[in-house]
Amino acid sequence: MIEVTKLNGSTVLVNSDLIESVAETPDTVISLVTGKKIIVKESRQEVKNLVVLYKKEISATGLPWLNKE
Asked: What pTM does this model have?
């Protein structure tokens, strides 16, 4: 999940796997596959960078709850 800031200043976690598109109109609008839209303070590029960092983190650490010893 990535953490983004809504226009009212509150933060929200978004499941990056549910992001369908991100557009700047001029506000940044994250559209989810569920049809929900979230307007955030971060730029389109910042949202992209957050998703890339999250995916890299998951790749590096794996899914610890699946590792049974």
From this structure: 0.83
